[in-house]
Amino acid sequence: MARVAVVTGGTRGIGKAITDRLKRQGHKVIANYGGNDEAAQAFSKETGIPVAKWDVGDHEACLEGCAAIEAEHGPIDIVINNAGITRDATLHRMSFDDWNDVIRVNLGGCFNMAKATFPGMRERGWGRIVNIGSINGQAGQYGQVNYAAAKSGIHGFTKALAQEGAKFGVTVNAIAPGYIDTDMVAAVPEPVLEKIVGKIPVGRLGMAEEIARGVAFLTSENGGFMTGSTMSINGGQHMY
Ligand code: NDP
């Protein structure tokens, strides 16, 4: 069945692959983005997928953005909380803004989007929320206390909200990607990246499409018995 789906940060990287994949599954997909108009316009032109700009860390903007989508396209049944940023630094160099920005966008964005859409899903008796966490939220990472805390928070958020949605046909799951070949990883210095790849048992970075395939399963009818879980897609880098 075709559903209305919103992918935050859906115009680039992993989000773009998710948006493409959900569209190919027949859903009406809207890609949110944060500020890169050029990338968003190019994406929309290439795919024909509508884009909507707002900051997921802004509570009111999420409520308004989702209300506008619902007015135009109908109730939102699928939300992929994918938008994320990094502000890496060791603790003694990390500013409060670095900390706050990452928590506000990466973790606050999940809360804001759930507030905008979860009550409607619950009322209608069907919904799918997938939150994109990270291997670094599971294992921690040097220079990322902000990012690791936000992503770890996403995994707790997922388990708690899953319990609230379970009786109402709303599943809430997380995907914890390992290192995926996107702009975010391109920003990692080459020598650091080489060391990281050396620790990935399959011997390569992941592809955005490999995360999108996980999302496709979790948002499908077949995924209805899976809730509150974290799907680790990381080439075997972190097993637990
Ligand atoms: P990219 O940096 O390639 O893309 C990020 C996307 O998020 C862009 O579309 C960007 O919009 C959007 N975005 C950023 N801030 C905001 C905001 N405040 N409001 C709305 N949209 C925003 O990231 P990736 O594709 O690499 O990562 C996607 C997700 O996967 C993130 O949550 C990331 O933490 C997670 N992840 C990534 C891994 C990797 O190896 N790449 C590993 C583990 C997790 P715009 O284009 O306008 O800037």
TrEMBL record:
UniProt KW Oxidoreductase keyword: yes
InterPro entries: Acetoacetyl-CoA_reductase, KR_dom, NAD(P)-bd_dom_sf, Sc_DH/Rdtase_CS, SDR, SDR_fam
CDD domains documented for this protein: BKR_SDR_c
Listed transmembrane segments: none
PROSITE patterns (alphabetical): ADH_SHORT (PS00061)
Chain ranges of the Ketoreductase domain: 3-178
Record-level GO cellular component terms: cytoplasm
Recorded coiled-coil stretches: none
Molecular-function GO terms, alphabetical: acetoacetyl-CoA reductase activity
Gene Ontology biological process terms, A to Z: monocarboxylic acid metabolic process; poly-hydroxybutyrate biosynthetic process
PANTHER family: 3-OXOACYL-(ACYL-CARRIER-PROTEIN) REDUCTASE, 3-OXOACYL-[ACYL-CARRIER-PROTEIN] REDUCTASE FABG
Family, as annotated: Belongs to the short-chain dehydrogenases/reductases (SDR) family.
Protein name: 3-oxoacyl-[acyl-carrier-protein] reductase /acetoacetyl-CoA reductase
Protein source organism: Altererythrobacter xiamenensis
